[in-house]
Amino acid sequence: MTKEEFLTRLKEDEEYAPGWQAIDDAFETLYPGQSPAHFGTLLTSRAMMGGDEYLDGCSVYSSPKGYQHLVTYGMTVLYGDEDAFGGEWNGWGYEMTMKLKEQDAESCMWAINMMSNLARYTYTTKRFFEPNQFVKGNGTSLHAGTDSLITALLLVYDTEAKPQMSVYGKTEFIQLVGITEAELEAIIADRSNISKLTACMKADGNTDLVTDMKRSRSYF
Known about the structure:
Elements: H1 3-12, H2 18-30, E1 37-40, E2 57-62, E3 68-73, E4 89-100, H3 109-125, E5 134-135, E6 150-157, E7 164-166, E8 169-180, H4 181-189, H5 193-203
Parallel strand pairs: 4-8
Antiparallel strand pairs: 1-2, 2-3, 3-4, 5-6, 6-8, 7-8
């Protein structure tokens, strides 16, 4: 699409949202025909309206493999934006995902709130996330108020959602994987333990690196 064609499309279609469509396209490939549960943020709470919400929302798909697959909307440019046209990367270049061993979308609200906090961190500090990084917690369960060994996050490329191209550039999908405090300490001590940890998880049958907040063992 040329710049002129893009501008014409913007004028003719008020709902044109190529960035949003790129995300939907990636997940339609994984979950054809499925209408996900979508949790949008209030317009008045969004940063562009003076609020502190930097995501427009999060969709939750139910995987036939037995988990909920979350994806954010807002780390990339979603709607019509002339200034974003023709970029190499769309916005920050990624949307966040997470796979939770839960039965329904409502059980994932704590994780959606966590992703919102991570988006706020990126937008306010200008520090973005990349695969093979980790996010420390405070030593307690990621899901506040629950008892769990999962206290921190490892970042990897989503094991299923493929990168997408739009008129705004490339969008990748970075998956948040819950890890234990012992696993976090092992990674801090030796970054090569990242690949060892994911290999152990996959060898144990968790090929899609699903976060199970009830996991009772640590791999390190």
